[in-house]
Amino acid sequence: PMTVDNKLRFIEPMDALIKKVQPFSSLVGTAQFPIIGLVPFSNVLSVPRTLDVADAIGAEWLNMGEAKTRRVQRSTLTARTVSNALSSFKPGTLIVTPGDRDDLLVAAALSTMN
């Protein structure tokens, strides 16, 4: 097996992976169902893009920015004061807040500039 991204590495040989999967499906790794390649787990590829989340909830874009490439690695639901919510404003975090909390929306937007 090979990968284009050199950060994605196989930890075990393919034969070892086939042996782990065969108790669940005896056809895996046979002539009837050969393994022709594997894609290793990747945090980057396993989380949705900002664009995907927005599409799922039918959001309207004010500024799409880098939504096609930014990944949502965690989310937080907050209606706290700005000073108490600051610790949530980290790269990769989806901030879910009431629409009338202009202070949190502005603080979240400004935190990306820091």
Features:
elongated; Phos_Acetyltrans/Butyryltrans; 2 strands; DRTGG; mainly alpha; 114 residues; two-stranded parallel sheet; 5 helices
Description:
The protein starts with 13 loop residues before the first helix and ends with a helix. The protein has 2 domains: 8-40, no CATH class; 44-111, no CATH class. The mean pLDDT is 85. With 114 residues, the protein is mainly alpha-helical. A two-stranded parallel ribbon has the order 1-2. The chain contains 5 helices and 2 strands; from the N terminus they run αααβαβα. The longest helix is centred in the C-terminal third of the chain and has 10 residues, at 102-111.
Beta-strand share of residues:
5-15%
Which outline best applies? elongated
Quote the distance from N terminus to C terminus.
41 Å
Radius of gyration based on Cα positions: 21 Å
Instruction: List the strand order in the largest sheet.
Output: 1-2
Look at the structure and give the mean pLDDT.
85
Number of strands: 2
What count of domains describes the coordinates? 2
Question: Spans of 5+ residues with little confidence (pLDDT < 50)?
Answer: none
Task: Characterize the biggest β-sheet.
Answer: 2 strands, parallel
Number of helices in the DSSP assignment: 5
H/E element string?
A: HHHEHEH
Structural class: mainly alpha
Q: What kind of oligomer do you see?
A: single chain
**Amount of helix:** 25-40%
Protein name: DRTGG domain-containing protein
Organism: Rhizobium hidalgonense
Pfam families: DRTGG (PF07085)
InterPro entries: DRTGG, Phos_Acetyltrans/Butyryltrans, Ser_kin/Pase_Hpr-like_N_sf
